[in-house]
Amino acid sequence: MTVIERFLKYVTFDTQSDESTGVTPSTPKQMVFAKYLMSELEALGLEDISLDENGYLFATLPANTGREVPTIGFIAHMDTSPDMTGTDVRPRIVENYDGSDIVLCEKDQIVLSPKQFPELKDHVGEDLIVTDGHTLLGADDKAGIAEIVAAIEYLKLHPEVEHGKIRIGFNPDEEIGLGAHKFDVEKFGCKWAYTMDGGEVGELEFENFNAAAAKIRFKGRNVHPGYAKNKMINSMLLATEFAGLLPENETPATTAGYEGFYHLIGMEGEVENSQLSYIIRDHDREKFEARKTFIVDCADKMNEKYGEGTVCVDLKDQYYNMREQVEPLMHIIDIAFAAMKEAGVEPKVKAIRGGTDGAQLSFKGLPCPNIFAGGLNFHGRYEFVPVQSIEKAMSVVVKIAELTAKRY
Question: Catalytic residue at 197?
Answer without folding.
Answer: no
